[in-house]
């Protein structure tokens, strides 16, 4: 049985249309007998959404602002009732949806941990055992006995996330709240989410961080203006969503002229071992791909670089991009721009591999692509078949 079933769910809000056009109209409303009920119009924030999340499967939900993602999560956690359709959620749910939701402002952080846990049915004895971990992960020890109304939004988010993930849920539902924390904290959150996922927790994560959705989730859902646009593998959903975003940007009056062909050239692309002077790479060793671009035009071009590693038979092995990793880059006019991609380990089997390089403008237009910009040779000391070298170990235990 699926752990989450969303069955033809729609949600209608009443959108108030009672804008007063003048102070006179505003005052007139206050006169007894002249009060009119504000006019309202129905607004469907969700329209006929259906999907199923099997146990242990993690879903990322994406969509532009106001598309209905938070509304869907609120319906799943039963803080909101659907106008049509039904949801069923099987398993112990822990959710982090609104900043500080479930926190009582006058209670201290510690008291709120107990309060939250008791709502989730976690006994006090268990919370006592976990308290130190919860405080440490949230990194708020000096403030744990201070009422949460004095917490910053970052402290709220840290404590909320720490509690929600420390109670060993079967289903973890997280909205974009993580975005308020600093980058180091966001990284720790993503690491913890990933660890929980590996241990079997189903994650439902709303995020604008498309790279994390692609890396960490098993499936993705794109909600567009309240409607289900795409339910599929993260890579496919994210790609379709990105393409739509680029299309919209272009429609929205992107009048930067296309960069003429030949304006940017790739003068060099070379992959070498990071810690020794060698172009033959040992499988698993750190490596650096150095690219040198020349911009022969007289306008600097803010751009994104994408690098794709391929096997000569066309199998895509990996693709990375400054867009996904949110790295800013400008190919300066009449200059050379050096871009280095540092790779911690390429666990590839012995063989030759091809590297393609693409350059896009920030509006998403292809400026140039260099198919087989360089070739890399990998040598592996391991025997065995397959595409990759598997870092591994064996353990044999004799019994009896
Ligand atoms: N209680 C409410 N009353 C009226 N309209 C609402 C209510 N809650 C949400 N909406 C509207 O429903 C739509 C969907 O909102 P929702 O917060 O679910 O979007 P979202 O995809 O989570 O957006 P974001 O990425 O900005 O968080 C928006 O237009 C919002 O203004």
UniProtKB/TrEMBL annotation:
Keyword ATP-binding assigned: yes
EC class name: hydrolase
Keyword Transport found: yes
EC number(s) given by UniProt: 3.6.3.40
InterPro entries named among the record's database cross-references: AAA+_ATPase, ABC_transporter-like_ATP-bd, ABC_transpr_TagH-like, Bact_Polysacc_Export_ATP-bd, P-loop_NTPase, Wzt_C
Keywords: ATP-binding, Hydrolase, Nucleotide-binding, Transport
Cellular-component GO terms for this entry: membrane
Residues of the ABC transporter domain: 28-250
MF terms in GO: ABC-type transporter activity; ATP binding; ATP hydrolysis activity
Protein family (similarity comment): Belongs to the ABC transporter superfamily.
PANTHER family in alphabetical order: TEICHOIC ACIDS EXPORT ATP-BINDING PROTEIN TAGH
Name listed for the protein in its UniProt record: Teichoic-acid-transporting ATPase
């Amino acid at each position: 049985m699926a752990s989450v079933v969303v069955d033809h769910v729609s949600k209608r809000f009443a959108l108030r249309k009672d804008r007063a056009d003048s102070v006179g109209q505003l005052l007139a409303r206050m006169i007894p007998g002249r009060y009119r009920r504000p006019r309202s119009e129905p607004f469907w924030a969700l329209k006929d959404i259906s999907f199923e999340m099997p146990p242990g499967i993690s879903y990322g939900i994406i969509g532009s602002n106001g598309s209905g993602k938070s509304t869907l999560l609120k319906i799943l956690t039963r803080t909101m009732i659907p106008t049509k359709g039904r949801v069923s959620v099987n398993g112990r749910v822990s959710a982090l949806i609104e900043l500080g939701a479930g926190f009582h402002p006058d209670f201290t952080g510690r008291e709120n941990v107990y309060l939250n846990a008791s709502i989730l049915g976690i006994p006090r004895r268990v919370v006592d055992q976990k308290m130190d971990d919860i405080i440490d992960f949230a990194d708020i020890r000096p403030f744990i006995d201070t009422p949460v109304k004095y917490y910053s939004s970052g402290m709220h988010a840290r404590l909320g996330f720490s509690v929600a993930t420390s109670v060993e849920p079967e289903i973890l539902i997280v909205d974009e709240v993580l975005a308020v924390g600093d980058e180091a904290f966001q990284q720790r959150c993503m690491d913890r989410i990933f660890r929980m996922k590996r241990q079997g927790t189903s994650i439902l994560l709303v995020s604008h961080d498309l790279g994390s959705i692609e890396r960490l989730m098993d499936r993705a859902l794109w909600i567009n203006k309240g409607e289900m646009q795409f339910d599929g593998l993260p890579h496919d959903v994210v790609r379709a969503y990105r393409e739509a975003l680029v299309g919209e940007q272009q429609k929205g009056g992107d009048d930067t002229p296309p960069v003429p062909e030949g304006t940017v050239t790739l003068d060099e692309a070379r992959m070498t071992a990071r810690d020794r002077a060698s172009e033959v790479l040992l499988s698993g060793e750190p490596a650096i791909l150095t690219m040198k671009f020349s911009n022969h035009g007289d306008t600097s071009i803010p751009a994104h670089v994408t690098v794709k590693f391929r096997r000569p038979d066309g199998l895509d092995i990996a693709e990375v991009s400054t867009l996904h990793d949110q790295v800013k880059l400008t190919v300066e006019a009449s200059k050379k721009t050096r871009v280095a991609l540092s790779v911690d380990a390429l666990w590839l089997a012995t063989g030759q591999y091809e590297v393609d390089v693409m350059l896009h403008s920030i509006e998403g237009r292809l400026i140039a692509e260099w198919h087989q910009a360089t070739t890399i040779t990998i040598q592996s000391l391991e025997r065995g078949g397959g595409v990759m070298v598997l870092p591994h170990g064996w353990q044999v235990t004799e019994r009896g």
